[in-house]
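Continuing the batch. This is chain 6 of the set; chains 1 through 5 are on the previous pages. Same settings as before, nothing changed between runs. Recording input and output for traceability.
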Amino acid sequence: MGGQLKSDHEKAFIRPLISFVALKSGNHAEIAKHFAVVVDIKFLDAPEDKIVANEKAAEKLAAFYNEYKIKGFERTAQREIGNTMYMTGKISGATKNYNITLMLMKKNTAPYHIVTLRVN
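Output for chain 6:
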């Protein structure tokens, strides 16, 4: 079966890894591909933006990653409850590391999408 996943269990294990790999890459464009249609997003001391269209959220993420020269991600915790996943970690910038918290959701067998992203 040429590399295809064989079971729902394998698929359930791999899907969260896709978002994780995007975060590890430090590439804001890859991360933004995993945004839900709307995203709640907050960076450092800026006010939280609620219900932001994914295109606007992608722009804000790109600006933050470019300004702080974010290069990577280390996961510190992850847990799943039903169709919701919570992930925390550290993103590394040029001179400092930042805490990041994400909430991801999925519907049925669809992949997880980032619905909340907070950096502090």
